[in-house]
Structures are given as structure tokens and as C-alpha cells.
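From the pipeline queue, job 12 of 40. The input is one protein chain; the requested action is below.

Action: predict structure.
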Amino acid sequence: MLRFYNGPMPEVNESLGKTSEQFTVLPWLVHAYTASGAVLALMAVLATFQDRYRDAFLLLAATTIVDATDGILARWARVKELTPAFDGARLDDIVDYLTFVFVPVLILIHAGDLPAGWGIAVAAAMLLSSGYGFASLDAKTDDHYFTGFPSYWNIVALYLHAARTPPVFNAVLLVVLAVLVFVRIRYIYPSRTPTLLRTTNLLGVVWGAMMAAVLFRLPEVPRSLLIASLFFPIYYTVVSFWLHFRRPAARKAGFRPDTLQ
């Protein structure tokens, strides 16, 4: 005789009911793409120790491309939703510290672009200030700005190395920028700050092409090319300061700062 069980149903492992979509490999491929920047950083370190500075800067340029595109891929692959136990933003910060801070500092020291003897103090200022900048909770604002100088040491290092400026000049400039990490001025996030976004991206593409020419002409870079390429860092700085100091006036007038055009 058949008997029916009327007791409580046994517990079911909820994980068995999850869709296969939640176990997709795509978000992990995006995380691996982000992490590849660390491998490129290691290759840049090895190139530096072999005095292949152009190769080192080319590898840093490759890491910049990875950093500029992994966020887009992460949003497309829904990594936050599909890998909730893994912090892709933290991974990105770790890789960025290596590629934007540590390796450029190493290149400057090894290439002799910092003063002999006390150049290590300048390097320490760069490393420590950027450590503070990366760990600050307000390092990136909700409306897509960086707070404090955003540790673009890879770009600064390339300019100083290509221009062959005196080590003492380099040291003074780098210390000033290290101090600016602590000054809570908002700097535009080139790919995400809504104000003048198209203009910034268009000028950024032109500047990127010029910097590619600088990289491939190392170590003999025409000074005219270097000077001309400064148009974008100047634009970036002027617009960042303009937007930062315009915000209080906009708020008093009743405008939302993120709608300023």
C-alpha cells in the first residue's frame, strides 16, 4: 500500500536553484583582464632593470589601455551582480597603484631622473602620498571626479624622462604634485565626468596619438612634440580647477553642479 508523507518538507539547498547565469565565466574573465595589468607591470619592472626604458613606458601605456577599458567591460558583464563576493574595484586599485605609482617611481630612480642621494626621499613622498590618495574614501566622488591629484605619475614620469629635465627640477615638481594629493581639489575623471565629456574625450584621443608618437621616438623625442602635447594636461588642469571653484557659486545660484555645461 502506498503511504503519503505529510510531515515537513526537507530543506533544499538554495544554491541548487541558482541559474547557470550566476556561474558564468565572463565576469571572471573581466577580472582576469584587470589583473593582467599587474603582469604588464612586472614586465615593465624587468625592462627597467635592463635599461629598456622605452619598452617599460610602452608596457605602462598598455596598462593604461587596460585600465581605461576594464570598467566598461565590467559594467557590460555585470561583474558586481554575478561575482558579489569578489571586489573588482579593490583589484583595480591594487593594479593601479602598481602601474600608476610604483613602476613610474622605479623608472625615475633607475634612469637617473631624480637627484642622486636624496632622490629616494622624493620617491617616498610619491609612494606615501599616493597610498593616502588611493585609500581615501573620497578619492572618487559619486558624480565622477577624483579628489586630490589623481597620481598620474606614469604620465609625469614619461614627460620628465623624455624631456631630460634636470633632476632637481624633477624633484621639485614631483614634491609639489605629491602635496596636491592631500589638497582636496576635484579633478575630472576623463571618461566619466559629464561636464565637457565629449570635448575631453576628443582632445584625449588627439593627445593619446601624440603621446604614442612620443613613446616610439624615445629616447630622442622632438622638443616641439613634447611642448605641443602639453595642451591636454593644461586643458585638464584648467577645466578641473574651473569646475571645482565654480561649484560653490553654482550651488548658491540653485544649480546642480553636475549639470554645468
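Job complete. Confidence is low (pLDDT under 50) at residues 1-6, 9-22.
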